[in-house]
C-alpha cells in the first residue's frame, strides 16, 4: 500500500492544500463561462468533478487509480450528475487535440514527469483554452535527503519554486502565465463535511495505516516549513494561420 492507496481507502476527496473550501473559492474567482467543457486531471473520488457538473459545466475527469474512480462513479450516481470518468495517465491523455475549454488540476503534476504532463495539458486544450493548476511548491532550501524521502513516501517527482514553475509553463508553450494564489506554507484547513465520502473504517485498525499516518506526521513536521503552494493559470496560445 502506498500513499495514494491510503487516500483511496479513506475516500479522501480533497487531499490538496486548502482542501475543498479552497477549490470552491478558486472556481468562484475564476468565473468560468457556463457550458465550458472541463477536463479534471487526477479527480480522485470525484468530489470536484461532481461539483463542477452541478455548477453547469460539461465535465470529463481522469484518474489512474481504479479504486478512486470506482468511488467517483458511485458518488456521481448518488449526486445525480453526469460526469464522464476515464482511467488514464496524464502523460498519454486519450483525447484529441484542441478538445477542452479548461484543464483543471490540483496537486497532481508534482507526481508526474512534468514535461510530458504539461505537453498533454496543452495538446488537449482548445486555442486560448485555460490551464489552472494548484501545486505544492518549494518555499525553502531543499536537500537531497528531503527530495528522496518525499518521493519515497508520497511519490513526488518534482519540487520546484514558483519561479521555476512559471518558467516550465512558458517553456511548455503556455502564454499569459499568472500566479492566482500563493502561500509560503502549506497552512492548515479544517475538515469539512463530505456527505458522499466512502471510507473503509477497517483501515483505521490496520497497522500499515497507522504506520503511514505516523510517517506522514513526521515528514510534515520536518519539512513542512520548506513547502508552500501556488495556483497557476495559463493560456494555450491562439493558433496563427500561415499565409500561403
UniProtKB/TrEMBL annotation:
<dbReference type="GO" id="GO:0000234">
    <property type="term" value="F:phosphoethanolamine N-methyltransferase activity"/>
</dbReference>
<comment type="pathway">
    <text>Lipid metabolism.</text>
</comment>
<dbReference type="InterPro" id="IPR029063">
    <property type="entry name" value="SAM-dependent_MTases_sf"/>
</dbReference>
<keyword id="KW-0489">Methyltransferase</keyword>
<protein>
    <recommendedName>
        <fullName>Methyltransferase domain-containing protein</fullName>
    </recommendedName>
</protein>
<dbReference type="GO" id="GO:0032259">
    <property type="term" value="P:methylation"/>
</dbReference>
<comment type="pathway">
    <text>Phospholipid metabolism.</text>
</comment>
<dbReference type="Pfam" id="PF13649">
    <property type="entry name" value="Methyltransf_25"/>
</dbReference>
<dbReference type="InterPro" id="IPR041698">
    <property type="entry name" value="Methyltransf_25"/>
</dbReference>
<keyword id="KW-0808">Transferase</keyword>
<feature type="domain" description="Methyltransferase">
    <location>
        <begin position="38"/>
        <end position="129"/>
    </location>
</feature>
Amino acid at each position: 500500500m502506498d500513499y495514494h492507496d491510503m487516500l483511496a481507502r479513506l475516500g479522501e476527496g480533497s487531499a490538496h492544500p486548502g482542501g475543498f473550501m479552497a477549490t470552491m473559492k478558486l472556481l468562484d474567482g475564476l468565473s468560468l463561462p457556463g457550458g465550458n467543457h472541463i477536463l479534471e486531471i487526477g479527480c480522485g473520488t470525484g468530489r470536484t468533478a461532481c461539483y463542477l457538473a452541478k455548477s453547469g459545466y460539461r465535465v470529463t475527469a481522469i484518474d489512474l487509480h481504479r479504486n478512486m474512480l470506482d468511488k467517483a462513479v458511485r458518488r456521481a450516481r448518488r449526486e445525480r450528475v453526469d460526469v464522464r470518468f476515464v482511467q488514464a495517465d496524464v502523460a498519454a491523455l486519450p483525447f484529441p487535440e484542441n478538445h477542452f475549454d479548461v484543464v483543471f488540476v490540483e496537486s497532481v503534476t508534482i507526481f508526474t514527469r512534468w514535461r510530458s504532463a504539461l505537453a498533454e495539458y496543452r495538446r488537449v486544450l482548445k486555442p486560448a483554452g485555460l490551464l489552472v493548476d494548484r501545486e505544492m511548491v518549494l518555499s525553502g532550501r531543499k536537500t537531497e535527503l528531503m527530495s528522496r524521502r518525499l518521493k519515497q513516501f508520497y511519490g513526488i517527482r518534482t519540487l520546484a519554486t514558483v519561479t521555476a514553475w512559471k518558467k516550465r509553463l512558458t517553456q511548455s508553450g503556455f502564454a499569459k502565465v499568472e500566479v492566482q494564489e500563493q502561500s509560503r506554507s502549506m497552512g492548515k484547513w479544517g475538515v469539512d463535511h463530505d456527505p458522499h465520502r466512502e471510507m473503509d473504517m477497517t483501515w483505521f485498525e490496520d497497522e500499515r495505516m497507522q504506520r503511514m499516518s505516523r510517517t506522514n506526521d513526521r515528514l510534515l513536521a520536518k519539512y513542512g516549513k520548506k513547502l508552500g503552494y501556488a495556483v497557476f493559470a495559463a493560456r494555450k496560445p491562439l493558433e496563427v494561420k500561415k499565409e500561403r
